[in-house]
Amino acid sequence: xxxxxxxxxFDTLKLSxxxxxxxxxxxxxxxxxxxLYAFSRWRQSCTTGLFEKGGxxxxxxxxxxxxLGWEGFIQGMDKANQEELADIFAxxxxxxxxxxFLRQGMTxxxxxxxxxxxxxxxxxxxxxxxxxxxxxxITAHPEWLENLQRWAGQxxxxxEIHETVRFERNADSWRAWLCHPMTYPEFQRSLLWELAASxxxxxxxxxxxxxxxxxxxxxxDGLDYKMKLHHFEREEEQGKSYxxxxxxxxxxxxxxxxxxxxxxxxxxxxxxxxDGGCNICGGMGPLLGYLPCSPHCKPEVREDNEIHNxxxxxxxxxxxxxxGWRMVIDRAQE
Length: 334
Known about the structure:
single chain; alpha+beta; paralog of FGE (formylglycine-generating enzyme); 2 domains; 5-stranded antiparallel β-sheet; 4-stranded antiparallel β-sheet; globular; Sulfatase-modifying factor enzyme domain-containing protein; CTDL_fold
C-alpha cells in the first residue's frame, strides 16, 4: 500500500505534483481530467481532481485511516435540538437520555482504513430511461397519453405509473422516462460491465459522507435549523439552494434528502443516507427525519433485493489500486 495516495500525505503535495498525479491517474483509469479544485466545508477541505467519464463527473477522493461510528456527543446539542427531542420523547414516553436513544441507530465505533477512489459526484437514478414522447414504446400505449392529458389539465407537474413510465412537465412540453426494474445483483453486474465501477461499501460511504467526523453530522452534533432542507422548506427560502445538497469537503453531493436511499455494497440490498422518508412520514420532525443521513447511521439491509426506482439511488466508485504506485508518486514529488 502506498501511503502517498492517502489524505495526510496527499494534502501535502504541491499543486504541480497533484496536477501531474491526477493526469497520470486519468490516463491509467480511462478518465478525462478536467481540473484541480479546492473543496472546503464543515471544517474539512481537500484540493483534488475533477474528472469525466461517460457523461458523469467524478472526483478523486484520497484514502485515509479514520474512526467511524458514533457513541456520544462531542459538542453536544443546542437548545433547539434538545427541545425537539424532548417533545418527541414525551410523545413516545421515552425516559432515557438523548445519547442512549440516538446510539441505538448508530454503527459501533471502529478504526478503518479506506482506500483511494474516484467517486461519482452526484446521486443517479436507477432503471429510468429518458425517451422522446414519440418513442414507439410510448405511442403504443394511448391510455398512458390519455391519462397524461387528464393530469396536464390539472396543472400537474408530473405523472407516473408505478415501475412503468414517468412524465414530467418541461415548460410547455413533457418529457418521458421508461422504467426498467432490476434486482440488486443485476444492477451491480450492469454497473461493473458498463462503467467498470462498483458501489461503495458501507464504510467507504461513511467516509465519503463524513470524512471521519466524530460529531453526529459532518457539521455538528445536531441539525442546523438555519439550513434549507428538503421537505422542511420555509416560504422565505424559495429560490435558495438546499444547503446539504451542495458539495461537501470532497466535492460530493451526498446524504441531503432522507427520501433518497443510496445503494452500497452488501450481500443483499443495502442502503445508506436515507430511510425512504419513513421518519418524516411518521411525523418525527426534522432532526430524526434527517438522522438517517448521518454518516454513522446503521445501513439498512433488505432481503428481497428488489430495487425501488423512486427511493433507491446510486453513486459509482472506481477504486484506485495502490500497489505499484511507489515510483509514480516518487516521480510526482521529485
